[in-house]
Protein backbone atom coordinates (compact mmCIF):
# COMPACT_ATOMS: atom_id res chain seq x y z
CA UNK A 1 0.00 0.00 0.00
CA UNK A 2 1.34 3.43 -0.87
CA UNK A 3 0.84 6.38 1.41
CA UNK A 4 0.50 10.08 0.80
CA UNK A 5 1.37 12.94 3.14
CA UNK A 6 -2.29 13.14 4.15
CA UNK A 7 -2.06 9.55 5.37
CA UNK A 8 1.38 9.74 6.95
CA UNK A 9 1.72 12.09 9.93
CA UNK A 10 5.51 12.13 9.74
CA UNK A 11 5.61 12.93 6.02
CA UNK A 12 7.61 16.01 5.19
CA UNK A 13 6.69 18.43 2.45
CA UNK A 14 8.43 18.32 -0.87
CA UNK A 15 7.70 16.89 -4.28
CA UNK A 16 4.95 14.43 -3.47
CA UNK A 17 4.13 12.05 -6.31
CA UNK A 18 0.39 11.52 -6.63
CA UNK A 19 -0.54 14.29 -4.18
CA UNK A 20 -3.70 16.24 -4.88
CA UNK A 21 -3.13 19.82 -6.05
CA UNK A 22 -4.29 21.17 -2.69
CA UNK A 23 -1.92 18.94 -0.69
CA UNK A 24 0.87 19.82 -3.12
CA UNK A 25 0.10 23.52 -2.54
CA UNK A 26 0.71 23.04 1.19
CA UNK A 27 3.89 21.09 0.49
CA UNK A 28 5.17 23.74 -1.92
CA UNK A 29 4.32 26.54 0.51
CA UNK A 30 6.28 24.92 3.35
CA UNK A 31 9.19 24.16 1.02
CA UNK A 32 9.29 27.74 -0.29
CA UNK A 33 8.62 29.41 3.06
CA UNK A 34 10.19 27.22 5.73
CA UNK A 35 8.90 29.48 8.51
CA UNK A 36 5.62 27.56 8.09
CA UNK A 37 7.29 24.22 8.87
CA UNK A 38 6.46 24.26 12.61
CA UNK A 39 2.83 25.12 11.86
CA UNK A 40 2.79 22.33 9.26
CA UNK A 41 4.23 19.73 11.62
CA UNK A 42 1.80 20.69 14.38
CA UNK A 43 -1.07 20.54 11.89
CA UNK A 44 -0.10 17.08 10.63
CA UNK A 45 0.32 15.81 14.19
CA UNK A 46 -3.10 17.07 15.31
CA UNK A 47 -5.00 16.28 12.11
CA UNK A 48 -3.32 12.96 11.32
CA UNK A 49 -2.42 14.23 7.86
CA UNK A 50 -2.61 17.28 5.63
CA UNK A 51 -5.98 19.02 5.47
CA UNK A 52 -5.24 22.01 3.24
CA UNK A 53 -8.28 24.11 4.12
CA UNK A 54 -7.67 23.63 7.85
CA UNK A 55 -3.93 24.32 7.47
CA UNK A 56 -4.64 27.56 5.63
CA UNK A 57 -6.46 28.98 8.66
CA UNK A 58 -3.05 29.11 10.35
CA UNK A 59 -1.48 30.54 7.20
CA UNK A 60 -4.00 33.40 7.23
CA UNK A 61 -3.46 34.07 10.94
CA UNK A 62 0.34 34.10 10.66
CA UNK A 63 0.25 36.22 7.50
CA UNK A 64 -2.05 38.83 9.01
CA UNK A 65 -0.02 38.94 12.26
CA UNK A 66 3.09 39.56 10.17
CA UNK A 67 1.32 42.30 8.19
CA UNK A 68 0.28 43.99 11.44
CA UNK A 69 3.80 43.76 12.80
CA UNK A 70 2.66 41.50 15.65
CA UNK A 71 4.73 38.47 14.63
CA UNK A 72 8.18 37.70 16.05
CA UNK A 73 11.18 38.62 13.91
CA UNK A 74 11.68 34.94 13.01
CA UNK A 75 8.10 34.57 11.71
CA UNK A 76 7.06 34.47 8.09
CA UNK A 77 7.12 37.71 6.10
CA UNK A 78 3.60 38.41 4.82
CA UNK A 79 5.00 39.62 1.47
CA UNK A 80 6.56 36.24 0.73
CA UNK A 81 3.27 34.50 1.46
CA UNK A 82 1.30 36.82 -0.81
CA UNK A 83 3.91 36.50 -3.57
CA UNK A 84 3.81 32.71 -3.39
CA UNK A 85 0.01 32.58 -3.41
CA UNK A 86 -0.17 35.05 -6.31
CA UNK A 87 2.16 32.81 -8.33
CA UNK A 88 0.02 29.80 -7.52
CA UNK A 89 -3.19 31.68 -8.36
CA UNK A 90 -1.84 32.46 -11.82
CA UNK A 91 -1.60 28.74 -12.61
CA UNK A 92 -5.36 28.22 -12.86
CA UNK A 93 -5.33 24.82 -11.12
CA UNK A 94 -8.78 24.09 -9.69
CA UNK A 95 -7.63 22.39 -6.45
CA UNK A 96 -5.15 25.17 -5.75
CA UNK A 97 -7.65 27.92 -6.52
CA UNK A 98 -10.24 26.32 -4.23
CA UNK A 99 -7.89 26.49 -1.25
CA UNK A 100 -6.59 29.99 -1.99
CA UNK A 101 -10.04 31.45 -2.65
CA UNK A 102 -11.99 29.66 0.07
CA UNK A 103 -9.45 29.31 2.84
CA UNK A 104 -7.10 32.23 2.32
CA UNK A 105 -8.92 35.08 0.60
CA UNK A 106 -12.23 34.16 2.22
CA UNK A 107 -10.68 34.21 5.69
CA UNK A 108 -8.84 37.53 5.42
CA UNK A 109 -10.02 40.15 7.92
CA UNK A 110 -13.28 41.97 7.24
CA UNK A 111 -13.24 45.76 6.72
CA UNK A 112 -13.89 46.44 10.41
CA UNK A 113 -11.14 44.05 11.61
CA UNK A 114 -7.45 44.83 12.16
CA UNK A 115 -5.36 43.77 9.20
CA UNK A 116 -8.00 44.29 6.52
CA UNK A 117 -5.60 46.63 4.70
CA UNK A 118 -3.66 43.54 3.62
CA UNK A 119 -6.21 43.16 0.81
CA UNK A 120 -4.73 46.30 -0.76
CA UNK A 121 -1.44 44.40 -1.06
CA UNK A 122 -2.86 41.43 -3.02
CA UNK A 123 -1.44 40.84 -6.48
CA UNK A 124 -3.74 41.42 -9.47
CA UNK A 125 -4.93 37.81 -9.83
CA UNK A 126 -5.76 37.35 -6.15
CA UNK A 127 -7.25 40.86 -5.94
CA UNK A 128 -9.66 40.03 -8.78
CA UNK A 129 -10.66 36.77 -7.08
CA UNK A 130 -11.09 38.56 -3.75
CA UNK A 131 -13.44 41.16 -5.27
CA UNK A 132 -15.53 38.36 -6.83
CA UNK A 133 -16.03 36.53 -3.53
CA UNK A 134 -16.16 39.58 -1.24
CA UNK A 135 -17.32 42.58 -3.27
CA UNK A 136 -17.83 44.63 -0.10
CA UNK A 137 -14.37 43.79 1.20
Kindly summarize this structure in a few lines:
This protein has 137 residues and is mostly helical. The chain has helices at 21-32, 37-47, 52-68, 78-89, 94-104, 124-133. Mean pLDDT is 90; it is low at 1-13.
Properties at a glance:
single chain; 137 residues; mainly alpha
Structure description:
It is a single chain. It contains 6 helices and no strands. The radius of gyration is 15 Å and the shape is globular. Residues 1-13 have low confidence and may be disordered. The longest helix is centred in the middle third of the chain and has 17 residues, at 52-68. It has one domain. With 137 residues, the protein is mostly helical. Residues 1-20 are annotated as: Disordered.
Oligomer: single chain
- Spatial extent as radius of gyration: 15 Å
SS field, number of helical segments: 6
| Element pattern in H and E | HHHHHH
Share of helix, binned = 40-55%
Spatial separation of the terminal alpha carbons: 46 Å
User: Strand pairing plus helix content: what structural class?
Assistant: mainly alpha
Q: Which whole number gives the mean pLDDT?
A: 90
- The number of distinct structural domains comes to 1
Largest sheet: none
Flag low-confidence runs. 1-13
The number of distinct β-strands equals 0
Strand content: under 5%
Q: Write down the overall geometry.
A: globular
Amino acid sequence: MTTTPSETPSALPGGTPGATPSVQLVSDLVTRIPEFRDVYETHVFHQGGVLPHVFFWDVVQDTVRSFLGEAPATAVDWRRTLDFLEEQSCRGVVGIDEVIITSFLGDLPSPQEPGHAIVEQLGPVMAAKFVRIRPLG
